[in-house]
Write a structure and sequence with these properties.
The protein is of the alpha/beta class. It has a single domain, classed as Spore Coat Polysaccharide Biosynthesis Protein SpsA, Chain A (Alpha-Beta Complex). Helices cover 34% and strands 16% of the residues. A seven-stranded mixed beta sheet has the order 3-2-1-4-7-6-8, sandwiched between helices. Helix 3 links the parallel strand 2 and strand 3.
Length: 329
């Protein structure tokens, strides 16, 4: 890690941590480019990039994609051997576990960081999210649009109308043994604002790692499961628009969803961050996601300009992703 880079970063800098391996180098380029594209004047970003196996050639292309005086990139090496003990699933890689080590990898004088997945498209000034108050929470996160509560909302009056459109539920299968309520909120781990001082003081990272080991047979979405258990009662929900999961398009209308009309409309039609959460990502199957055109528009601002997936490759990868997901669940 280059400490001299950090020495030149001002106290007003937005700190963002991201992790990727070779599979997510190209979408990572788009995510960061979209952050810079929508960043308000006067803002700057320190990107703490957790390298889980990005080839040197792709690193050069990433740096070429992000030439901007408002961005400072600091690289951190993540030992992939340390991640091999964790289960891997469907279209994800073990790089997803790197977020559990952020509070340990970043210098202790950094007390706050935003963790973002590498498959996002940012459509609003990320500084607005950075400025959200913690209100005594250790973390800010967005309820998972596929299952915003631990047991899918069984306590909601209109549960029978939307239950068929939910994702996996109960999303924490052993929630009763943990002492959780079915109506406890559940967040998606792709967009987090972390109070690192609280994480270190309460050793939340170790709690999450212990959870992975202790409750291994109950894991559905492993890193999310671990963080939701470790942060139970310690996180504050953000507006759905800050993490639009692809599942939002499954609900026929707001009366057949877990959300009110305004929240669903804002998330579905005017998101601040689009999260390509399923195997049908734009670089795999462009026609499957309504925000694919915006993804490729931003891609053409990077060193991958002009790249498009071949139709045959798209069909094969999409079929493989759906098969792996069905096998896992």
């Amino acid at each position: 890690m280059a400490r001299d880079h950090l020495a030149r970063i001002s106290v007003d800098t937005i700190h963002i941590a991201m992790a990727a391996d070779r599979r997510f180098a190209m979408p990572l380029a788009v995510t960061v480019r979209s952050i810079l594209r929508t960043l308000a004047p006067g803002r700057c970003v320190a990107l703490h990039l957790l390298d889980c196996g990005i080839p040197d050639g792709d690193k050069a292309r990433l740096q070429a994609s992000w030439r901007d005086d408002r961005l400072h990139v600091v690289w951190y090496h993540v030992d992939r051997h340390e991640l091999r003990a964790f289960p891997v699933m469907a279209h994800f890689s073990r790089a997803m576990y790197a977020r559990l080590f952020v509070s340990r990898l970043l210098p202790r004088d950094i007390g706050k960081v935003m963790y973002l997945d590498a498959d996002l498209l940012v459509l609003a000034d990320i500084g607005l999210l950075w400025d959200e108050p913690f209100d005594d929470a250790a973390c800010l996160a967005v309820p998972d649009v596929s299952c915003p509560w631990v047991d899918g909302g069984v306590t909601r009056a209109n549960y029978e109308r939307f239950r068929l459109y939910l994702g996996d539920h109960p999303i924490i299968p052993n929630y009763r043994a943990l002492g959780f309520s079915p109506s406890d909120p559940y967040f998606n781990s792709g967009v987090l604002v972390m109070d690192l001082d609280r994480w270190r003081a309460d050793d939340i990272s170790q709690r999450a790692l212990d959870c992975l080991e202790t409750h291994r047979r109950h894991l559905l979405w492993p890193d999310q499961y671990a963080l939701n258990v470790a942060l139970h009662g310690r996180w504050r929900p953000l507006d759905l628009a800050w993490n639009q999961g692809a599942h939002i398009f499954r609900y026929p209308d707001w009366t057949h969803s877990p959300f009110d009309l305004a929240s669903l409309a804002r998330c579905r039609f005017a998101p601040h961050i689009v999260h390509f959460t399923t195997a049908d990502k734009p670089w795999v199957r462009p026609e499957a996601h309504p925000f694919s055109p915006q993804f490729f528009e931003c891609l053409d601002l990077t060193a991958w300009s002009g790249w498009r997936p071949s139709p045959l490759r798209s069909r094969l990868l999409a079929k493989l992703g759906r098969t792996l997901t069905s096998l896992w669940t």
